[in-house]
């Protein structure tokens, strides 16, 4: 059956719901879109950390003016995930410019170059990319070029204040003729696997297509049949709070440290420092987890209000069933080690928009299968990448003993076997996922820094010529001095006028396109 989609109702006005509406609007200008959201409902008070693709989705796909975004949302530019303490591993960065380490044209010295990265560069924290050095020096990607113009290093993601970001997206929805309705859905009527109507306190909503972006409440999706794929991860709870922090003390990275029953995070936004603890309730109760959290961040006994959250890691096998699409936490969730939630959901929303445009705004089995396959691939690749962190983590507590047994999917197992048998090889076509959230280079970088070894390298004597060593070393040696010229977030926001920032960002945006 083919159904024309003339109107869409999005239930939920969190970031995922707003972004989904904006994505649909971008390529489907004639579709009527409304967002039904209980404005008074509480939302998780957690700072948003993102992954690099979010930048292109916001400013390329959605054509959001970057200068306006910077002035109103005031993001902090994130350069890496900084594993300040990960079990027995020395501190290391997972930077966004990792790909540059592997971008080497095929040549007759390739084996030497790759082995040098494996043996010397990856295990040594002094070999930092520009992103890694940005974190060490606490700077933004902006700097003044030799001609006096403000320039920018291209690899970064965002740390976002949830209130600023959500308010910005709401205003943008209004500007783009997306209707926002303040209402709470109380009853959902279904028939034969489809939603007939969604009734709110104030009105009744009938649409060709519904999007459930109501978070873990799953207001629409819970009323429909569907199979939920449960990830084998015991982490299921978190607590967090916000701490005051001066702009001069910003760390431009999501900082990770392990605890006895999980791991701690730190996310610096423009206004505050968001800190939290993700843990497994199977191994520690809420009170003891909060005690560990308070002790780690010197919070005292009652000086800070602590938010508590529970979740299940997994996803709906069919995100699009009948005339309802589940997106955001309504569609699935995985513990936030690599800050993929908002970015992955934005990717799914952009895929949805493209498919609707390519299929003439029709709902039929083919488009649903394609969308579901793409979303499943996103979830699986994120799950595998997160599992790669845990499978090499040493035990020592019941929780970490359990986590070290996490294996991931057959896809991750194939990557591990390839790495063990052949070392660094980013051109294995069979190992590339349809939904590229993380590339092979990302896996290799994390695995090596987590202590993974390759039987190929360990069992073969590869002599690296001095010229190769000098060439690679030279790439890293000049980075600290270059990054020293970058502006700190405080210098960017308080040392430059709003007009200077806007002119520079718009010029840089035009140049990148």
Biggest sheet strand line-up: 7-6-18-19-20-17-21
Measured by DSSP, the beta-strand proportion falls in 15-25%
Outline = globular
* Strands, count: 26
Biggest sheet, open or closed, and with what strands and sense?
A: 7 strands, mixed
C-alpha-based Rg, rounded? 23 Å
Q: Could you tell me how far the N terminus lies from the C terminus, measured between alpha carbons in angstroms?
A: 41 Å
Provide mean pLDDT, rounded. 92
Number of helices, where a helix is a run of at least 4 consecutive DSSP H or I residues: 17
SS-based class: alpha+beta
Helix content: 25-40%
Q: Catalogue the unreliable spans.
A: none
Architecture blueprint of SSEs:
Layout: E1 3-4, E2 7-11, H1 15-27, E3 32-37, E4 48-49, H2 53-61, H3 66-73, E5 76-78, E6 80-85, E7 92-95, H4 110-121, H5 130-137, E8 142-144, E9 150-152, E10 157-160, H6 162-175, E11 179-182, E12 185-191, E13 194-200, E14 204-205, E15 209-212, E16 228-230, E17 237-243, E18 253-258, E19 262-268, E20 273-279, H7 286-296, E21 307-310, E22 314-316, E23 320-321, E24 324-326, E25 332-333, H8 341-358, E26 362-363, H9 365-391, H10 398-403, H11 410-422, H12 440-449, H13 455-459, H14 466-477, H15 479-483, H16 489-495, H17 498-512
Parallel strand pairs: 2-3, 2-15, 3-11, 6-18, 15-24
Antiparallel strand pairs: 1-26, 4-10, 5-10, 6-7, 8-9, 12-13, 13-14, 16-22, 17-20, 17-21, 18-19, 19-20, 22-25, 23-24
Written description of the protein model:
With 513 residues, this protein is α+β, with helices and mostly antiparallel strands. Helix content is 38%, strand content 21%. It is built from 17 helices and 26 strands. It has a seven-stranded mixed sheet, sandwiched between helices. The protein has a six-stranded mixed sheet with strand order 11-3-2-15-24-23. A three-stranded antiparallel sheet has the order 4-10-5. Strand 19 (262-268) and strand 20 form a beta hairpin. The longest helix has 27 residues, at 365-391. The mean pLDDT is 92.
């Amino acid at each position: 059956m083919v159904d024309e989609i003339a109107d869409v109702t999005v239930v939920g006005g969190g970031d995922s719901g707003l972004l989904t509406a904006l994505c649909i609007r971008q390529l489907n200008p004639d579709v009527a879109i409304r967002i039904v959201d209980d404005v008074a409902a509480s939302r998780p008070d957690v700072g948003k950390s993102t992954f690099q693709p979010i930048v292109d989705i916001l400013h390329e796909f959605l054509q959001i003016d970057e200068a306006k975004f910077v002035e109103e949302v005031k993001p902090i530019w994130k350069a890496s995930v900084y594993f300040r303490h990960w079990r027995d591993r020395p501190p290391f960065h997972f930077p966004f410019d990792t790909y540059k380490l592997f971008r080497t044209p095929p040549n007759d010295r390739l084996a030497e170059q790759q082995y040098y990265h494996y043996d010397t560069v990856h295990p040594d924290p002094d070999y930092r990319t520009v992103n890694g050095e940005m974190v060490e020096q606490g700077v933004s990607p902006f700097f003044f070029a030799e001609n006096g113009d403000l320039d920018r290093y291209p690899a970064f993601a965002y740390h976002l204040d949830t209130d600023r970001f959500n308010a910005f997206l709401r205003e943008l929805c209004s500007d783009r003729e997306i209707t926002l309705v303040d209402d709470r859905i109380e009853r959902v009527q279904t028939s034969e696997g489809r939603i007939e109507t969604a009734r709110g306190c104030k009105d009744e909503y009938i649409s060709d297509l519904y999007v459930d972006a109501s978070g873990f409440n799953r207001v629409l999706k819970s009323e429909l049949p569907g199979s939920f794929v449960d990830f084998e991860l015991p982490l299921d709870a978190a607590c967090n709070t916000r701490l005051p922090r001066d702009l001069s003390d910003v760390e431009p990275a999501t900082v990770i440290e392990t605890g006895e029953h999980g791991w701690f995070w730190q996310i610096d936004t423009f206004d505050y420092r968001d800190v939290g603890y993700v843990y497994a309730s199977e191994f520690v109760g809420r009170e003891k987890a909060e005690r560990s959290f308070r002790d780690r961040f010197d919070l005292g006994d009652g000086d800070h209000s602590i938010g508590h959250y529970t979740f299940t890691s997994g996803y709906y096998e069919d995100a699009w069933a009948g005339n309802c699409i589940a997106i955001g936490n309504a569609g699935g969730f995985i513990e936030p080690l690599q800050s993929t939630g908002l970015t992955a959901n934005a990717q799914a929303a952009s895929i949805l928009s493209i498919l609707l445009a390519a299929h003439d705004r029709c709902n039929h089995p083919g488009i649903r299968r394609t969308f579901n396959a793409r979303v499943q691939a996103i979830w699986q690749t994120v799950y595998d990448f997160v599992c790669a962190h845990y499978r090499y983590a040493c035990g020592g507590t019941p929780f970490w003993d359990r986590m070290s047994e996490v294996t991931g999917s057959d896809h991750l197992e194939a990557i591990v076997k390839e790495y063990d048998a052949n070392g660094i090889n980013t051109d294995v076509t069979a190992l590339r996922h349809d939904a590229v959230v993380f590339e092979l280079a990302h896996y290799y970088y994390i695995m090596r820094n987590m202590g993974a070894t390759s039987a190929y390298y360990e069992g073969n004597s590869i002599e690296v010529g001095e010229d190769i060593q000098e060439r690679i070393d030279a790439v890293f040696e000049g980075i600290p001095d270059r990054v020293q010229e970058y502006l700190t977030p405080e210098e960017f926001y308080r040392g430059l006028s709003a007009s200077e920032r806007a002119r520079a960002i718009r010029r840089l945006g035009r140049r990148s396109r």
